[in-house]
Amino acid sequence: MDMNAAVVHRYGPPEVVRIERRPRPRPTGADVVVEVAATSVTSGDARIRAARFPAGFAVPGRIALGLRGPRRAVLGIALSGRVVETGPKATGLRPGDRVCGMTDMRMGAHAQYAAVPRDRLVGIPDEVDDDRAAAVLFGGTAALWFLRDRARVRPGESVLVVGGSGAVGSHAVQIARALGAEVTATARAENTDLLTRLGAHHAIDRSATPLTDLGERYDVVFDTAGVLHSADASALLSPSGRLLLAAATLGETVTARGRVIAGTAGAGRDLVSDLVDRVAEGTLTPVIDATLPLDRIAEAHARVDSGHKVGTVLVHP
Questions:
Q1: Which tens digit of pLDDT belongs to each residue from 121-131?
Q2: Residues whose CB is less than 8 angstroms from the CB of residue 31 and which lie 6 or more positions away in sequence, other chains included
Q3: Packed helices 269-281 and 137-144: angle between N→C axes, nearest 10 degrees
C-alpha cells in the first residue's frame, strides 16, 4: 500500500519539496505505524531542507544528513495521529489509539503514515485535539528542557526570552511564567500583545529597543532565535545568571559550560507527556500560525523561512 509523502531529494529553497507516492511503512520490532493527523514544519526542518546550518555545522551537518540532499528524504519530526499497526515488540498501544510524539533523527513525519518507536509516543488526552498535540512538541520540548531541566528556573527569578513569538519562544514564555519567574520577552512590535497574553510581565519591541539598551540583568537569558552570542550576553546576566542557546553555533556548543547552556532537548516521552498534560489542564497553549494541507507544504516551508511566523506551522497530510 502506498501513501503521499513530502520529499526532499536535494537541498534548496521551499520549492524543492515535492509530493510523491511512497510505500507505506510497516512496523518492525518495537515500531508503531501512525496515521498522521497533524505534523509541524519547524525551523529545524527548514534548515535541513536548505542545508542552512548554524555556524560551524555545515560540514558535519552534510556528513550526518547527506552531501547533496537528505538521505532521509521525508522530513518532519513531530506528529499526532492514530495508531494503525504495531510491531511485535510494541506493547501498550493498539490500533485506534490517539498518540503524539517525535521521531527525532529518523524524521518521516511529513507523510500520511509514519513509523515511530513505541518509546517515543504518548497517548493524547481527550481534552487535546490533534493540532495542539502536534504543535506543542518541537517548541515545547526545547522550552521545558532548557528552562526546567537545565537552567532549573526557580520562583522569583527573572527570565528574558529573546524571540518570544516563535515556536520555542511562545512556549518558553508560558513555561517560565508557570515556573514562577518574572518574564520579559522580545518580539516584533505587532507581536508584543501576544507576549502579554502568553504571560510575559514585560513585552519588548525588539526593533525599538535593542537588547543592549534593556538596562536590566536577568537570572536566565534564553536566546531562542540564535541572535545573541555568549560574549555579548554578559551585560544581560546577573552574577548567577545562565545563558541558554537554543540555536548555538558549533563553537558555542563545544565550549558551553558553567552558566552557558547549549544542546538539544531530544524527544523523550517524559517531556512529551508533561507537555500534553499541561495542554489538557489549560496551563500551556500552543500558538498555531497556519494549518495547510500536505500538498501545500512548500508554502509552509516558505512561511518558516520568512522569519515572520508566530508559533508553529502545521500540515495536515
A1: 999 999 999 99
A2: 25, 86, 87, 90, 115, 116, 117, 118
A3: 110
Residue 275 within a domain: no
What is the domain range of residue 251?
138-262
CA distance 259 to 106: 32
Residue 270 lies in a domain: no
pLDDT of residue 253: 60
DSSP-derived secondary structure for 223-275: ESSS---GGG-GGGEEEEEEEEETT--HHHHHH--TTEEE------HHHHHHH
The verdict on residue 31 lying in a domain is yes
Q: Is 38 exposed, middle or buried (0-12, 13-18, 19+ CB in 10 A)?
A: buried
For the chain, give the longest Cα–Cα distance: 61
Torsion of the alpha carbons at 60, 68, 139 and 22, rounded to the nearest 10 = -130
Q: In this prediction, what percent of the chain has a pLDDT beyond 90?
A: 79
pTM check: above 0.85: yes
